[in-house]
Amino acid sequence: MLLSTTDTIVGKKITKQLGLARGNTIRARHIGRDIMAILRHIVGGEITDYTKMMAESREQAIDRMVEDAQKLGANAIVHMSFSTQMVMGGASEILAYGTAVVVE
User: Fold this and answer.
1) pLDDT at 104
2) Cα–Cα 20 to 30 A to 95, which of 46, 64, 78, 83?
C-alpha cells in the first residue's frame, strides 16, 4: 500500500477514487508511566514512555486505515493525515485518515 500526505504520488496516475479510509485507536495512560512522567517533568527532558506509546498508537491507526482502504479495493492512500483528540481525562484518540485510491 502506497501512502502519501500529498494529493498525488509521483510517477503514479490515480485511476479511481474510492472514498475515505480511516483507522483509529484510543489509548489510556498507565499509572506507572504517569509516575515516571511526573519525575521527568521535575528534572526536564523527553518522556520516552509517552513518546513510545504515541508512536505505537500512530502505527496502529495507520495499520487500521490501510485495512480499511484494502477493503475498498485501494492500492494507495493520498492526502493522509492524523488527528488527535482527548476523549476523557488520561485517554486520547489518534485517527489516521486519507483518500483511498487506485493508482497505476
Assistant:
1) 97
2) 46
